[in-house]
Automatic annotation (TrEMBL):
Function: Adenine glycosylase active on G-A mispairs. MutY also corrects error-prone DNA synthesis past GO lesions which are due to the oxidatively damaged form of guanine: 7,8-dihydro-8-oxoguanine (8-oxo-dGTP).
EC number(s) per entry: 3.2.2.31
Enzyme class: hydrolase
Species: Haematobacter massiliensis
GO terms of molecular function: 4 iron, 4 sulfur cluster binding; 8-oxo-7,8-dihydroguanine DNA N-glycosylase activity; adenine/guanine mispair binding; metal ion binding; oxidized purine DNA binding; purine-specific mismatch base pair DNA N-glycosylase activity
Cofactor annotation comment: Binds 1 [4Fe-4S] cluster.
Cofactor(s) demanded: [4Fe-4S] cluster
The protein's name in its UniProt record: Adenine DNA glycosylase
PROSITE patterns linked to this entry: ENDONUCLEASE_III_1, ENDONUCLEASE_III_2
SMART domains according to UniProt: ENDO3c
Amino acid sequence: MRQDWTSADFSAALLEWYDRHARVMPWRIGPAERKAGVRPDPYRIWLSEVMLQQTTVVAVRDYFRRFTERWPDVAALAAAEDAAVMAEWAGLGYYARARNLLKGARAVVAEHGGRFPATREGLLTLPGVGPYTAAAVASIAFDAPEVVVDGNVERVIARLFRVETPLPLAKPELTALAARLTPAQRPGDYAQAVMDLGATICTPRSPACGICPWRDPCIARAEGVQAELPRKLPKAAKPVRRGILYLARRADGAWLLETRPESGLLGGMLGFPGTDWTVEAPEEAPPVAAEWRDPGGEVLHTFTHFHLRLALRVAELPETAAPTQGCFMMLSPAHLPTVMRKAYDLVRADQASATGEVQASPSKRSGKTTRRR
């Protein structure tokens, strides 16, 4: 730490900045409200932190509003049907988070009388809550002086102290430095302030150092290397997996769907039947006997650990066709996860082109579910 700045100086400068420039979030109690004695709702903080894992604030806002309108407290969420929660989550990605939300809500109701544990240690006992989420909820909801370190905080601290160790190797060092700055007073506001600083001022590219409240003690800025930090180890190339999706539409307009297994990617979500996703080219495995055709094109999607390329097969079924075992029929499929929605949009566009039907623009055929806050 720079000798001319104490930890109290750091927190005072940052909190003064935060009081003027705090981002407005639907789950956040602003600085003025906190000073007036309004306390954050632990349920809303927990829900937002789970949603924000690997996901941007922009992507989460509308989901958060819908969730809290439909399930305004932890008891309501605990009583929700699994399928309803999974459907409401569709498109947000990382679907294990939705399953853990339900498990966590039910644990809070069954084991804690409907009240969230107020400590990091207590929060760690909830399903799906790891060290970062436990620290964030304890700090923001209960004003516990926990060290909250996300990607934004890592970047700020790496520049502030010019940490040259590349990520992820630098994580312990950055956490220790962040702990030295975490104040006992207003730790919840401080935690949010550092994240806001990284998201709005100390950004990955072209940081706005001239208006940063920590510009004077920042070692990287003083030495002109702020844009180079934090350093990162080269990422390993992602493998490519392949699969086939089968999209069958009955004469009455209903589509053949299945509920995916609870474990694994897209667990518990609606989807079209298909093959496993493997490195080797998959073998054909149609779910029903029909005249399957290739509509051309493929769905491209990127998950955290691999790229996915899905070939498509489409078929028309007679109105008397019954769903096969494990499948069901649905008119106008809704609440599909993004990769399934891409397949549906591509096939519907193909059908509209063949019939001359006016069709809304389909979603992009490629994209990623990996996001950052």
